[in-house]
Amino acid sequence: MTDLFATTTDAQPAREQLGEGAVLLRGCVGDDEQALLVDLRTIIKAAPFRHLVTPGGHTMSVAMTNCGRVGWVSDARGYRYDPVDPDSGRNWPEMPPSLRSVAARAAAEGGYENFAPDACLINRYKPGAKMSLHQDKDELDLGAPIVSVSLGLPATFLFGGFTRHAPQKRYRLTHGDVVVWGGASRLAYHGVAPLPEGEHPVMGAQRINLTFRKTR
Question: At 122, is the pLDDT very low, low, confident or very high (cuts 50, 70, 90)?
Answer without folding.
Answer: very high
